[in-house]
Amino acid sequence: MKRPRTRRAVVLLLGAAALLLQPHPPAFAQPPAVRAHAAVLMDIETGSVLYQKQMHQSRPVASTTKIMTALLALENCKLDDSVVVTPADTKVQGSSLYLKPGDLMRVDDLLAALLLKSANDAALAIAAHISGGVPAFADLMNHRASQLGTTHTNFVNPHGLHHPDHYSSAHDLALITREALKHPRFRELVSTRKAQILVPSDPGGVRTLRNHNKLLRTTADFVDGVKTGYVKESGHCLVASATKDDWQLVAVILDSREAYRDALRLLDYGFPNFRKKVYATPGAALGRAQVRGGAQPSVPAICHETLVAVTSTDLPRPPRLEVTLDGPLQAPISRNDPVGRVRLLAGGEVLAHAPLLAGQAVPRSAFRVIAVWALRALVILAIIALLVRHYAKAVKTRRGRRLRLPP
Length: 407
Description:
Layout: H1 3-21, E1 38-43, E2 49-53, H2 66-76, E3 82-84, H3 87-90, E4 104-106, H4 107-117, H5 120-131, H6 134-147, H7 170-180, H8 184-190, E5 194-198, E6 206-210, E7 223-231, E8 235-244, E9 247-254, H9 259-273, E10 274-280, E11 284-292, E12 298-303, E13 307-312, E14 320-325, E15 329-330, E16 338-346, E17 349-358, H10 366-404
Parallel strand pairs: 11-15
Antiparallel strand pairs: 1-2, 1-9, 3-4, 5-6, 7-8, 8-9, 10-13, 11-12, 12-17, 14-16, 16-17
Helix pairs in contact: 2-4, 2-5, 2-7, 4-5, 5-6
C-alpha cells in the first residue's frame, strides 16, 4: 500500500532536481525606480531609448523650453551679433537679468544668460531679434521641432513660463537636446559652472553668472549639462547629459521631487547596462557587386555612413549586418552609383540602414567595346551593301527600259 506514495515522492524529487539542474536564464538588470511623472534615457548619437516612463506624455516643461530657444539662436545668429533690448523684453516675470531698454547685448552673452541663469528677458530679446516678436518666434520653434521628429510638443513662448497651450514631452525634449548638442558653443555653455558676460547697464559692465544645474557641482564628474526648469504647474524638470568613454547619454526628468537623483539613477543605470558598438564606418567595403561586361568582374560596395547600435549587455543575440547587393550590374558603372544596401538588425528589428555605393568606376571591357564597334561596323557595311545593291538594280532596270523602247 505504501509503494504508490514512495513512487510519487521519487518522481517529485527527480522533477525538482531537474529544475535545479537547468541553466538559469540571464539576470537582466532592473531599471531604477524613478519618481518623475515622465522620463526618458536616450543615446545621443543614435536616438536609441534605453529607458522610458510615459515619455510621450505632453506636459508643461518650464525653462527646459530654452533649449529650443538656444538652438534657434545658434542656427539663425552669429555669436557676435548685437541685440538691442526693447521695453517689451524687460517686462517678464521669473528669473531675469533685469536688462534695461536700450541695452546692447551680444548674442553669445544672451545665450550664456539663457542657459546658465535661465534669464527670461534674454529669451525674449533673442526671440525679438530673430523673429520680431514672440508669436512669430513660437511658430519658428514649432516648425523646427516638427523637423526634429517631435510629436507631442507645442511652444507659445521662448522661456517656458506657464501657458495651457505650451507643452512638450520627455522624448521630444531629448530629440531637441540631441540637435542642440551638435553645436560646440551649446555644449560648452551647458557644461560651464560660472561665466562672466557684458551688461552695459551694470556698474563696470560685467555680470557673473552661476549655472542653475546643481549636477555640475556634484561628485558626478561625468555630467556635462544641460538645463533645469521649474514652474508650479510643471514641477521640477531637468535635462541632464553625461559622457563616459566618448559615449554620451541624455536623461530627461519631468515633474519630480528628486529630479537630480532621478537623473543620476538613469545615467548610472545606462552606462554599465548598455553597450555602444560601431558595426560599419564610412569607406568600409561590405562586399563586391557583380558587373557584366565590365573591365572588372565586380565592384566594391562601400558604406558611406556610420552604422552604430546601442543594445543591452544582456541581449542574447548581438546585432548583425545584413548586406543586399544589386546585380549583376551592367557596365559602365560610375563611382558612387548605388549597388546595394545594408541593414543593422537585432532580433528582426532594423536598428539602422544605409545605401551601398560603388567604390570605383568600372568601364566596359576592351573586348566588349571592340565587339560593339565591330558589330556597328558590320551593320553599317551591311546597310551600305544593301544600298549599293539597290542602286545597281535600279540602274540596270532603267537601262533595260531604254533598250526596249521602239526606234
